[in-house]
Amino acid sequence: MIWSIILPEFAFLSILFFYFKFRKSPEKYATFSLNKKTYSSIITRNEVMHTVWSMFIFALLGGVIDICAANDLTSLYTDNEQYGYTYTFLSFFIVIGLNDIYFYLGHRFLHWKPIFKKIHSIHHQSHTPNPFSAFSFHPLEAVIQIGIIPLVAIFIPLHTGVLLIFSAFLLFMSVYGHCGYELRGGKAKSLHIFTNSIHHNQHHRYVNHNFGLFLIIWDKLFGTLHPKHKQESEAFQKGG
Fold first, then answer.
1. How far is CA 220 from the centre of its chain?
2. C-alpha distance from residue 114 to each of 70, 110, 135, 183 (Å)
3. Would you give the DSSP letter of residue 73?
4. Contact indicator for 228, 235 with CB cutoff of 8 Å
5. Is the separation of the CB atoms in 190 and 27 below 8 Å?
6. Three-class DSSP labels, 79-94
7. Residue 80 and residue 88 in contact, taking contact as beta carbons nearer than 8 Å
8. pLDDT tens, residue by residue, 107-163
9. Of 162, 196, 160, 171, which is closest to residue 181 (Cα–Cα)?
10. pTM of this structure
């Protein structure tokens, strides 16, 4: 697989999916809308430019995987019998869990005052999240954010198909968190351990809260969950 093409392609397709899903008739989704605006009125030129740079960084890091794979320096495999079907299945959830810890700690680091001012503040110029703000990063932050993919490819035994699904899921959910719409307002209570679009929208409004990506448990554990997260989520479940 040519990861230098796959990673930016997944990211770009995720952006396009959410952009075209809500662009033409946002009033149709008014019950789910967090920003009550059309994308055309909130997407900035800087967001698009930084996103293009991030795509370039993603391609470079995908190239790292390509080079390592060509020289047998990754832990990727294609034969399920090598580690067994059970491990192949469970490995997806292993890397999801590792990524969630990686993201939370990395995100907290990016909010360290000296780093935030020079690097992460670019991402927070997007006060109203939208699909293009998902990857609107300083180049160094783009490396940190996507860096988990080459790391797990090199150090953790993974079927190439698992890495493919993990990469697609990671990038898709990153855009979903920024899309400005809550699509799972009525989800079952048993699923409340997962973050939603409201969770990350609050992070862009209240920058010292809600650092998690998939799971809400890290914010609860470290006391960084916004006190109104539950209230706003329940309001959406009731239709606003």
1. 19
2. 38, 9, 21, 35
3. -
4. no
5. no
6. CHHHCCHHHHHHHHHH
7. yes
8. 999 999 999 999 999 999 988 788 999 999 999 999 999 999 999 999 999 999 999
9. 196
10. 0.89
